Amino acid sequence: MTFPFxxxxxxxxxxxxxxxxxxxxxxxxxxxxGATATLLSTSALARAGVDPTDPLTARPIQVMTASxxxxxxxxxxxxxxxxxxxxFGFSVVAHDLPASAQADGVLxxxxxxxxxxxxxxxxxxxxxx
Length: 129
Hints:
Blueprint: E1 2-4, E2 13-19, E3 24-31, E4 39-40, H1 42-48, E5 59-65, E6 68-82, E7 85-94, E8 105-107, H2 109-112, E9 117-120, E10 125-128
């Protein structure tokens, strides 16, 4: 399957659908092959019914950022789907990006493991198989 992207844009944005305990949401995430984990904003997670502060369902972790380590939480989604791939019981990091990112989070390497990801900057297409 191939999906279009804007090769001249500052970031590769992809459509993502997440399902939490309350609802399913459509989000826009930055495809980031340099990020080891998928990260979602706390507000998007809250809208889906996931509470990153709940000690029963969230595991505190530290995330390394350009500014150094920051506290975050690892939480579980019912489902995360993007680029024709569905991941069930998928663990993500709850952490907010700067407002300038204009995205609900980052789609990281953990989502792509076990696949062949091709970014064609000439044709402006992403393929995932």
